[in-house]
């Protein structure tokens, strides 16, 4: 069963400036949720709060009744710029399993499977720092998946990638959800959101203006700001 995400009156303030304002919604984390909005809307900030990387200034956020900070074991987070350790591709992948003291046979099984899934099996012994942008992002996603999370949080997972790399990343994301996982992702690529998203959270100026099924959001956005955003006017 996927955890339920509940936000109530969530705020995040820096130097008396509210970057996120009174955000409230409830959602069973099923399928893919795209977090959309113009630059500076608060998308990446909300994603960080959802995962528990930072704490809200006010309000509450919980996963199935548990605070985000203390319930991270079922979630994995992938940053817009992949985190690459100065090790081989294989060592980067298995690092989180070693930290969690996963048995060696299980580490080997999962690593072999994820290298194949990410199409990195021919690069397993290569230095991770030598990977292209698309390869590094696939490695980061594979490293997130290897821990077998229930939920993935992705910050612009295909930013600045070529179409072929984007297609591979999207395929990995779709496979994860078909196996029962859920995804929260920020993206500026509206075509990508239309292809992948089941639900949309639309932010503008730190406010949550729409939380709707993706098909109805794209067909008929309710708010003028969402209409302007989809028309390319923001």
Keywords summarizing the entry:
234 residues; alpha/beta; six-stranded mixed sheet; four-stranded antiparallel sheet
Structural overview:
It contains eight helices and ten strands. It has 234 residues and is α/β, with parallel strands linked by helices. It has a six-stranded mixed sheet with strand order 6-7-8-3-9-10, with helices on both faces. The chain has a four-stranded antiparallel sheet with strand order 2-1-4-5, with helices on one face. Strand 7 (151-155), helix 5 and strand 8 (182-186) form a beta-alpha-beta unit. Helix 2 (89-99) packs across helix 3 and helix 2 packs parallel to helix 4 (133-145). The radius of gyration is 18 Å and the shape is globular. The mean pLDDT is 92.
Strand-helix topology:
Blueprint lengths: L3 E11 L2 E12 L2 E6 L6 H9 L6 E6 L2 E2 L7 E4 L10 H11 L4 H14 L15 H13 L5 E5 L7 H16 L3 E5 L3 H7 L2 E6 L2 E7 H6 L4 H7 L4
Parallel strand pairs: 3-8, 3-9, 6-7, 7-8
Antiparallel strand pairs: 1-2, 1-4, 4-5, 9-10
Helix pairs in contact: 2-3, 2-4, 4-5
Give a summary of the structure in a few sentences:
By secondary structure, the protein is an alpha/beta fold. It contains 8 helices and 10 strands. 35% of the residues lie in helices and 27% in strands.
Number of helices: 8
Placed side by side, the strands forming the largest sheet appear as 6-7-8-3-9-10
SSE run: EEEHEEEHHHEHEHEEHH
Instruction: Compute the separation of the termini in Å.
Output: 38 Å
Which structural class best describes the helix and strand composition?
Answer: alpha/beta
CA radius of gyration is 18 Å
- Counted beta strands: 10
Helix content: 25-40%
Largest sheet: 6 strands, mixed
User: Which of globular, elongated, flat, extended, rod-shaped describes the shape?
Assistant: globular
Strand content: 25-35%
Residue-averaged pLDDT, rounded?
A: 92
Runs in which pLDDT lies below 50 for 5 or more consecutive residues are: none
């Amino acid at each position: 069963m996927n955890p339920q995400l509940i936000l109530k009156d969530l705020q995040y303030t820096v130097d008396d400036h509210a970057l996120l304002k009174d955000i409230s919604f409830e959602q069973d984390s099923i399928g893919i949720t795209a977090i959309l909005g113009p630059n500076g809307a608060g998308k990446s900030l909300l994603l960080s709060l959802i995962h528990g990387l930072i704490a809200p200034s006010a309000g509450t956020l919980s996963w199935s009744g548990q605070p985000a900070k203390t319930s991270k074991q079922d979630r994995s987070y992938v940053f817009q710029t992949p985190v690459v350790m100065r090790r081989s591709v294989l060592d980067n992948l298995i690092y989180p399993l070693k930290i969690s003291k996963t048995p060696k046979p299980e580490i080997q099984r999962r690593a072999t499977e994820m290298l194949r899934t990410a199409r990195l099996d021919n690069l397993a012994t290569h230095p991770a720092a030598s990977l292209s942008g698309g390869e590094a992002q696939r490695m980061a996603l594979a490293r997130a998946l290897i821990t077998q999370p229930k939920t993935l949080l992705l910050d612009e997972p295909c930013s600045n990638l070529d179409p072929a790399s984007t297609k591979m990343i999207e395929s990995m994301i779709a496979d994860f959800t078909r196996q029962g996982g859920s995804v929260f992702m920020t993206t500026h690529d509206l075509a990508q959101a239309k292809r992948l998203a089941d639900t949309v959270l639309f932010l503008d100026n730190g406010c949550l203006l729409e939380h709707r099924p993706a098909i109805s959001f794209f067909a008929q956005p309710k708010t003028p700001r969402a209409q302007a955003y989809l028309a390319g006017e923001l």
